[in-house]
Amino acid sequence: MSLIHAAKIALGSLVSEPHPPAPSRSALAPLPPAQQVLPSGFLLGAATASHQVEGGNDNDWSEWEKGSYPDGKPHIKHQDVSGVACDSWNRFAGDVALLRELGANAYRLSLEWSRLEPEEGTWNEAVADRYLEWMRMLRAQGIQPMVTLNHFTLPRWVAAQGGWANEKTVEWITAYTRRVARKLGAEVDLWCTLNEPNVLMAFGYMKGEWPPGLSDGKLGLHVLARQIRAHARMARELREHDTVDADGDGHATRVGIAHHVRIFQPATRSPMDRVMAGFTDRLFNQLLVDVNRTGRIQISVPGMADLDEAVPDLKGSYDYLGLNYYSRDMVRADFKSPTLSRQYVAEGRPVNDLGWDIYPEGLYQALKRYGRAGLPIYITENGMADGKGDRRPGFLREHFEAVVHAAHEGVDVRGYFHWSLLDNFEWAEGFEPRFGLFQVDYSSPDRTRTPTPAVATFQELARGLGLDPQARTDDAA
Ligand code: BGC
Fold it and tell me: Picking from 1-5, 87-91, 401-405, which range would have the lowest pLDDT averaged per residue?
């Protein structure tokens, strides 16, 4: 790292806006009831992703799941393969019944590009019809769909030609988006172009734990930039080709991205830890927020990338900011690591089954901070791995309270989607982590769904917003 660069980063970190401090809970005056605080039409829902729940997919992940590293360690814990997953492809009506049981008025789900376009230029109209039917089914039940165009997985033919390392992927995903917008636009108003471009960069191209399994920081940053360019093109396609206002609220499309944000806290007061926490924060958190304001991709990482590129259609391409919030990391400078720092959870913290810090204050901090971007915010994901299911009720309650608290202080937050509706295929961790409000029995042929204790908590929150949880009938299950 050159001295000038280090100085710039140091200066930036010291003057960069930190997350506003979280007030201690005991110091909080009791909040008014959520319904008085949250805007009318607030979306309370759950989220899933196609590859994690549908089952029967054939994409870059299906190939990756079969493989192992050179040391023989399988790519996926316990050598799990996504396989039938939750079989939601065949059980969608049952999943809608679960949403009704929760009292949800929204569902964030993703479309599987590899099903819609299994070969280059080949469009599967029967699959498109099925997705259309799902959207109608949701609407008929008073559930607003939020549709993610791409949640990590790529068709095999895209992956075979380099995936996100190939600029042509921008063209391909743009063309795919156009077809989807035309097909589903009459039923869908709320779109999410890409899920977590920063996480895909980190796991697929830096840590090498997801396909394509690369550890190449430089490429990773270029892949991040490419996804941002793709987002801008996709947003434009959606606005051009979805002109039907499905719910009559005056907006035919509301486009955003689901952006994974974390709280990065310096491990010590040492200037280097502070600098690296600030640097990590800007690259991982802030960059994807700024692109909407500036219309430029600006990435500067010494020795890896020095990009400053104006991107057509990027400025103002977010109608809302989607935040996926899970946890907090302590950051220690470590110039041997590809990310120049080491991240870990402080000792003694409450953690979920994957060892992630449970830090609801962070959601409040994130909302306060990103609320300043002047965009409506949806919490597009928030949840915890909890095999026993006994800690999720408290998690849900406290995180929802953080949302209400931020809204009470003026943040324009319009929805909260819990991750996840169901236990599902948790990428490299396989089926072991349990994120579902409903537990899935993977040993049963019908993938039986059983409510966890957090279902009652969710229902209580729903009732508090004037929503109406419905008992599940046998034929819906
Ligand atoms: C991803 C989900 C994942 C969840 C829990 C998010 O980063 O969007 O696909 O299952 O985190 O790890």
Answer: 1-5
The domain in which residue 256 lies consists of: 11-468
Over residues 429-456, the mean pLDDT reads 98
Pocket of ligand 1 (CB under 6 A): 49, 52, 195-196, 199, 260, 324, 381, 419, 426, 435
Q: How confident is the model at residue 432 (pLDDT cuts 50, 70, 90)?
A: very high
Catalytic residue among 187, 237, 361, 381: 381
Answer whether residue 4 is part of any domain: no
The number of folded domains in the chain is 1
Residue 112 a catalytic site member: no
Paired tokens of 435: 């994120």
Is-catalytic flag, 309?
Answer: no
Name the closest-CA residue to atom 9, ligand 1.
49
DSSP bridge pairs for 147: 109, 191
What ligand 1 atom has the least distance to the C-alpha of 420?
A: 10
Query: Does 3 map to a domain?
Result: no
As a whole number of angstroms, the distance between CA 366 and CA 379 comes to: 10
Under a CB-based contact definition with an 8 Å cutoff, are residues 149 and 176 in contact?
yes
Q: What is the pLDDT of residue 457?
A: 98
Q: What is the CATH number of the domain that holds 63?
A: 3.20.20.80
Q: How confident is the model at residue 264 (pLDDT cuts 50, 70, 90)?
A: very high
Residue 114 included in any domain: yes
